[in-house]
Design a protein that fits this description.
Number of helices: 3
Structural class: alpha+beta
Pfam families: DUF952
Number of domains: 1
Oligomer: single chain
Strand content: 25-35%
Protein name: DUF952 domain-containing protein
Shape: globular
Helix content: 25-40%
Organism: Phenylobacterium kunshanense
CATH class: Alpha Beta
CATH topology: ADP-ribosylation fold
Length: 111
């Protein structure tokens, strides 16, 4: 199953240079890298990324991440994918733009 990580382009650029993504500030705080499914990503974008410019969305095949990926209850009791390890940039299958819409929420045009 494909999973998605929304983040500022600058963080993705830094991850590319390092060869791995260690997480955003909230990921460090919670102890894992937050991902969403395609069905969950739009609400995640609206709640946590509204008004933030220059975002990208990483598309990752969850099965490639092994046992470090855990599905845990979160918003509304839904199971969300959480990665308890750095993300090797080689696992990123695609990078999508997430421009802000008129309402200030990132538009996930790939979803």
């Amino acid at each position: 199953m494909r999973i998605y990580k929304i983040l500022p382009r600058a963080e993705w650029s830094a991850a590319q240079a390092a060869g791995r993504f260690d997480g955003s500030a909230i990921d460090h705080q919670d102890g894992y890298i937050h991902f969403s499914t395609a069905a969950q990503a739009a609400e995640t974008a609206r709640r946590y990324f509204a008004g933030l410019p220059d975002l990208v969305v990483l598309e990752v095949e969850g099965d490639d991440l092994g046992e470090a990926l855990r599905w845990e209850p979160s918003r509304g009791g839904d199971l969300f994918p959480h990665l308890y390890a750095p993300l090797d940039v080689a696992h990123v299958r695609a990078v999508h733009e997430a421009p802000l819409g008129a309402d200030g929420a990132p538009r996930l045009e790939w979803a």
